[in-house]
Write a structure and sequence with these properties.
- The protein is 45% helix and 19% strand.
- By secondary structure, the chain is α/β, with parallel strands linked by helices.
- It has one domain: 3-Layer(aba) Sandwich (Rossmann fold), CATH 3.40.50.2300.
- A 5-stranded parallel beta sheet has the order 2-1-3-4-5, with helices on both faces.
- Helix 2 packs parallel to helix 3.
- The chain is globular.
- The two termini are 13 Å apart.
- The mean pLDDT is 95.
Length: 127
Amino acid sequence: MDNKKPKILIIEDENNIAEALRLRLEANGYDVITSSDGVEGLHKAHTERPDLIILDIRLPKMDGYKVCRMIKFDEEYSSTTVIILTARIQPSDIAMGKEVGADEYMTKPYRSEELLAKIKQYLAAEN
């Protein structure tokens, strides 16, 4: 019986947000890895093979839209759930999130309970 914790990758350049997310997710039983830029985040998505990715849009080196597109349009990784978590709330930003294949688009400030519920929902659907 495989009892491993679901692995979540947080790609977020604001340390305080990444750290708060990491602590909250670990407290809820998840294995968490973080990255502070798009290039490193994409690399970790490929090497760590997380069950779910929480992705910011405004990132150094490569923006979140491009990271999401590169994950979702790669057959090997396309089933990985991507939740975009960003301060960008324009309808065009949300449309772009859907266009690049994000499973969910959530805006900051976010409610932890809502984010945790979405994570549980997506991870349960995968199993």
